Amino acid sequence: MDNHFAVKDPLEESRIFLNRVVAAFVLIILIMSGLVVRLVYLQIVGHEHYSTLSKDNRIKIAPLPPTRGIIYDRNGKMLAQNVPTYSLELTPERIENLDETLKNLQQLLAISDDKLEQFQKLRKRNKAFTSTPLLQNLTEEEVAKFAVVRPYFPGVDVYVRLVRQYPYADLSSHVVGYVGRINEQELKTLPSAEYRGTDFIGKIGIEKTYENQLHGTAGYEEIETNAQARAVNTVATTEPIAGSNIYLTLDIDLQKIAYDALSEYNGAAVAIEIKTGAVLVFASRPGFDPNPFVAGISAKEYKALQESHDQPLYNRALRGQYPPGSTAKPFLGLAGLEYGVTDFGHHLFCPGYYRLPNVEHKYRDWKKFGHGSVDMNSAITESCDVYFYDLAMAMGIDKMHEFMDRFGFGRKTGIDLVGEVDGLMPSREWKKRFRKHAWFPGETIITGIGQGYMQATPLQLARATATLANNGQVVVPHLVQRVINKDTAETFENRNPENLGLKKQNVDNVIAAMTNVIHSSRGTAGSLARGINYHIAGKTGTAQVFTIKQEEKYNEDAIDFKMRDHALFIALAPVEDPQIAVAVIAEHGGHGGTVAAPIAGEIIRAYLNQNKASANEK
Amino acid sequence: MKNEMRNEYFQSPSLIGNLLRTLHVDIPLFLGLVLICTLSFVILYSAGGQEINVLIRHATRMGFAMLLMIVLAHINPRQFQSFSVLFFAGCVLLLLAVAVMGQIGKGAQRWLDLGFFRFQPSEFTKLSAPMMVAWYLAEQPLPPKPKHVGIAGALLILPVLLIAKQPDLGTALLVASSGAAVLFFAGLSWWFMIVCVLGGIALTPLLWNFYLHDYQKNRVLTFINPEADPMGAGYHIIQSKIAIGSGGVNGKGWLGSSQAELDFLPESSTDFIFAVFAEEFGLFGCVSLLFLYLLVIIRCFYIAVQAQDTYNRLLAGSLAFTFFVYVFVNIGMVIGVLPVVGVPLPLVSYGGTSMVTLMAGFGILMSIHTHRKVHPV
Fold first, then answer.
1. Which of A53, A268, A597, B55 lies in disulfide reach of A525, CB 3.0 to 4.6 Å?
2. Domain count of the fold of chain A
3. Contact across the interface for B283 and A46, Cβ inside 8 Å
4. Which of A501, A513, A496, A516 has its CA nearest to residue A471?
């Protein structure tokens, strides 16, 4: 309130103001003197220094892009390397008539319109004085051809450039991925200093997931240039630091066995080392050759890949979502035991169908006249559907969802590979939210045999199997074993110590039943038992087909095949001391036991033999 | 006969003088500005790659800015005073609008697009903020009590934060300093200022961690050690120092800047134009230009001291001081003693918005000076 009594005093105010103006003026003079001192320092003291930098020889700073890290498999076999290749490049600034030059070059060397278009795009983005590639991977013959006429093409040069190459092509494509030219969108978000001089960036796979480690640190060169801005001499160099080399957990030989074993089937095989979570096999068939993507794939080739019936660009192991079918049974059985809904010896009569009280509809077993009296052991061994219909009804969808969720169904595994999908483990909430409908009891029943809404990726199945084999100690699959650069080596082990806290007896019972799938005369995958001196535990499955493509054309020859069920198989071995968990899906393979199981068998056999061999060596 | 001759001879310059006086133009200030503007054409011709089109656009903008200055000089300062609150409120609302649109558009947003007309509300705020604070303090007994200082600070904080968030650190700095200058001229206690400076130093780590964008941090880091990132942000400063240093005492002569010509120096016609000037005209040129700026600042202070009421005095003082801050921040960053914050060299840099606001400020100063009541001595 005191300001009501305070009176404005104009004389005092103008006196204060005058003081302040003087103070401000003194400050301004001081600061300006400071600026002048700095100018004197730059222009008199530093004049000679800066003159030499500027006058006859001017310093330009040129980036030195780092060499990209190499990707190896677990045994040191190279999966992605850098290969020197010839590259025909144009520096627009030094070319008088660009259109004509391009036309002449096109006549000399067969250059597709596609390549020309790519060049024009790149050129617009680059500065006029930077060298822009027109043609890569020139043959010796092409280089010779150009060398003869080179004097007539000022501003056109052949350079040797390191280009990414993938020696295993389609075999490793879905794991390693590929690099491609940095596009406009990526350019906006990249740290520009680090990527100056770099043309390529990881687009998918390990190449993308581990881009930061693989890329390295850019260096630069201070170059003296003459009055025409042409390089004369290098003053100082800060060497780039090459990207880290990466060792994968993948075993490319094993991968090849799996890939070949899938033979004519489209599908996927995933194998995980149980103790570590290391992914040994991550095969998706068909693969594709990633090498054309590096140089810039032509629109035609890309279209062909995209529209192919077999969908080679589709990573089935990571992104393929299939109803797990009967392969879900061991886990649902375990759920029943863990919740105390049933016990392992509980018997039930299977007449070949299951019916809800007071409902006409029959849920059929795959065996028309039924399995007769079954307990959980025989229900898993013979894959009895009725037993699991009954168990599902007793358990209810809420418990099923809760338990399967803990086993990783319906959620990402956390593998170090971009693009993983969730799969689906349905629940009441899910259906309400996404289907706008209440849950029906009938849906609980078919979920009991892994059908209905339930969907899992091959990776999720392998991971769940590995977790089961690991007594509920959760296994997080990972593909990178070591990241090695000049100074450090980082090693990755099983990254998730979470334990599901399962009863050992329950797990043993379920695995025993799965062992019978292979080693009992009534098992659905008996063929695997031949010629091995250890035990394999597994489970077959068949998944009803959902059409891969909605607007697929009617094709008389293909239709029969396309209607066939997917064949699935999960396995762990050896039962005595589980080391490897496998999941195999053969699209339209029909029966899990006859098609998918032998593929898993080959992987297991090869892996365990290899282990034995290396143990003997020691 | 002789007398008549002499009268005619002396009358023609005073004719122009009379004309300017009736237009309410302050002749010394006007002369200073014209000199700097003329110089700007000379530098811009060289820095802008000797393109006539650049000069024409620059001249158009300058013409418009001068016109605005003369129009404002004509208005009685009482009008400015009564318009202050409305003007300030309008600016804050527009800043909010820009911020909201930026949120929607997801990205840096400084412009308000009215379809036929695009402008930056932050530019107007450079004028409305000191006007508002001057209006408020003019109502209070001075020197200001802590409460009044607090209220004035509260008025400033919202627009400054909004502008800094845009993010336009340079303009935020200018708005903040124009408001602070009003408080300073009103007699803000020295102790308070010392406490503020110490507090500011203490707050720096907080600001650094929670408020600055990565690229802004980068600029500061680069300023501290430009050699650490010669490919990226440090490039400006290194090249600018080479340009200035190689100019020496006498410079390389007009059109002699090799740094700008060979594309070494980025932004050579906008924020870094002083480097081109220093390369071509050397230390002599630089000191002369600084002296020219100093003359304009002195005249502005003279106008402020001569002003007849508190509002005019405070506003004039603040406008004069802010002009100096412009000069200092720009030249400071170009010669590598301040971080790069994106403030143009006043009246010289190419690019329109800041020139219009600056000239408007000079218009207000002229209005203050030419509308005094002349007391009979």
1. A597
2. 3
3. no
4. A501
